[in-house]
Structure formats: C-alpha cells, structure tokens
Amino acid sequence: MDEFSFIDSIKQQFYRQPTLMKGVGDDAAVFRQPAQDIAISVDTFVDGVHFTKNTMDAFHVGYRALAANISDLAAMGAAPAFYLVSIVIPTSWSETELAQIFTGMKELASIYKMDLIGGDTVSGNELTLSVTVIGYADKKKARYRSEAQAGDVVFVTGTLGDARAGYHILTSEGDYTDADYFIKRHRLPSPRVEFAKRLNKLSRITLNDISDGLASEAAEIAQASQVNLTLHDELIPTSKPYKQFPEGLQHKWKLYGGEDFELLGAVSSSDWEKVRKMADETNTKITKIGYATVDADYGGVFLTQHNTRERIYKRGYTHPI
Q1: Same topology for domains 3-137 and 145-312, yes or no?
Q2: Own/partner pairs for 29-37, CB < 8 Å, 24+ apart?
Q3: If DSSP states are collapsed to H, E and C, what string results for the chain?
Q4: Which fold has domain 3-137?
Q5: What is the pLDDT of residues 174-226, one digit of tens each?
Q6: Class of domain 145-312
Q7: Contacts for 241 with CB less than 8 Å, ≥ 6 apart
Q8: For 288-320, what is each residue's pLDDT tens digit?
Q9: Domains of the chain, residue spans
Q10: What pTM was estimated for this model as a whole?
C-alpha cells in the first residue's frame, strides 16, 4: 500500500468536534476556539523501547500510545479533542498490523469524541509512533505542577504498580491470580479524564500523571512548586491481588513502576472533601497519601515507613517492553 492509500485508509469519514474547520486533506488542519485555553502534548513510542510484539498486539500499541497522551491532558485539566499521528513504518510490520494500531487508537478516541486530524507516514527501520494530542481547558483553569502549597493534601487516583505487575506476568512464567486484570492495566490503561474535568470547579489544584512512577512525579511537583512532599508508604493504594508478588517488587513497582497513568495531586486541605465528592461522582478511587510542607530546602520527596522517614529520589525510568 502506498502512502496516500494508507492515509485514505485511516482517515475519518466524519468528525465529532464542532470547532474543527478542516481535518485531513490539506497541508494543515484548522480548528477555531475562542472561548477556552488550548493544551497540546506529544509523545513518541519506539518498537523495542516502549513496546514489543512479545507483550502487545498491534491494537494495544495504538490504544496505549493514545492513552498516554490523553493522560497528559487530564493532568493539565484539559478535555481531549484532537490527535495527530506520525508513523515510521518498517517492512517487518504488515498492513493488517498497521491498521490494527489505528483501530486501537480509534476505539479509545471514540470514547472521548476525539478526531484524527493529521499526521505523516515514512519508511524506516523501526516502527515509531509520534502522537500529538490537543485539548481544551476552561480559561485560567489549566493545572500546573508549580501550584502546590504548604499544608496541601497529597493524593492519588486508582491503585499503583498494576501496569508493571502486568508486564511482569507477560514476561515471567508462573501461576498468577487475576492475571487478566494486571495485563489489561498494562495494555489498556484508563486515563482519568472525567475526574480531572470535574476538578475545574476548584480554584487551585496541582496534578501530574503517573507515567514514570510515583517517586518521579512527586519530585516534579516538589521541585516546580518549591515544596517538600511527605508520602506515607502504608497509605499508597494497591489492588488486593497485588499482594501475591514479593514484597520487594511490590515496594519497587508502586514507587517506580510507571505507566499506571493515574493522577497524583495536591490540593488545599480545605478543598479535600470537595475532591473526594468529585471522585465519588465520577466513580474514581482516590486516596490521601501525604502532605506538602515548605522548608529551608525544597524539592524533596520523603517516605515514612515503619516509624522512619527517608528521602526518596527521582529515578530514571526504563520503559518495560
């Protein structure tokens, strides 16, 4: 299939977003949005680095690639609207597999009424996806890492470590309980868009999506906001079947595992009950795990465990494949 035939095969037959003036078919897409702030995010995914056929079908590759970007928008308090996909195509991937990548993205996009409005294709040695997403936030309600303050409640959505446990199951022989649950968490994450949108009612809240692990994302908030964050190990939420794994791996994965695509947040203690109510309204599990302080030295993340308090550090994250 040549480039133009491929583009025709993935092009949407109709568009969902009323702000779109022109989609695929010209040198650029055009959308009009006078009433809201626009948030844009881009991520690149490379075969052998971020995914592999050994642990993911082509459908999952597309689904998770778009999910990762949508989670970034959720962390900014923005609702997703459009996405663009540039793809480097090697001869080792069949036309059927390529179609399945876009099918995976389209399935997730349909949930949020997102439109595919452009991209590019080129031949190369490794399959590479570059996904750009565009979303809308209410004016002056985009959420930044730099807005945490002393006394804030620190919280997370969902349960942590599940995605890394799913990868472990896919790559390690064994008899596991609820294996399908963990594998789904690895392959088909669910961005917290509805919950993040509901938080627009608050005047101030800080959010970060957990893509590189809790310790890393907490450090980003602490550094940007010039605060310290203290997290309580026993409060960090995990799923019930997560207890089947060795304690050392449980501890490692929930702090450094990454790719759960849950949200880490900090909010005024006076607004905490409002956040809990919004979580209930969107059927979102939410857990208070710590607090923020302002000290002489800032930018640190501390973990309390077994009556001790120690600093934990942002680690370089290696994507499991």
Answers
A1: no
A2: 29/82, 29/84, 29/117, 29/118, 31/81, 31/82, 31/117, 31/134, 33/136, 35/139, 36/136, 36/137, 36/138, 36/139, 37/78, 37/136, 37/137, 37/138, 37/139, 37/140, 37/141, 37/142
A3: CCHHHHHHHHCCCCCCCCCEEECECECCCEECCCCCEEEEEEEEEEECCCECCCCCCHHHHHHHHHHHHHHHHHHCCCEEEEEEEEEEECCCCCHHHHHHHHHHHHHHHHHCCCEEEEEEEEECCCCEEEEEEEEEECCCCCCCHHHCCCCCEEEEECCCCHHHHHHHHHHCCCCCCCHHHHHHHHHCCCCCHHHHHHHHHCCCCEEEECCCCHHHHHHHHHHHHCCEEEEEHHHCCCCHHHHHCCHHHHHHHHHHCCCCCCEEEEECHHHHHHHHHHHHHCCCCEEEEEEEECCCCCCCEEEEECCEEEEECCCCCCCCC
A4: 60s Ribosomal Protein L30; Chain: A; (3.30.1330)
A5: 999 999 999 999 999 999 999 999 999 999 999 999 999 999 999 999 999 99
A6: alpha beta
A7: 177, 178, 181, 182
A8: 999 999 988 999 999 999 889 999 998 744 455
A9: 3-137, 145-312
A10: 0.89
Which two tokens mark 126? Answer: 């490794």
Degrees (nearest 5) of the Cα angle 74, 293, 298? 90
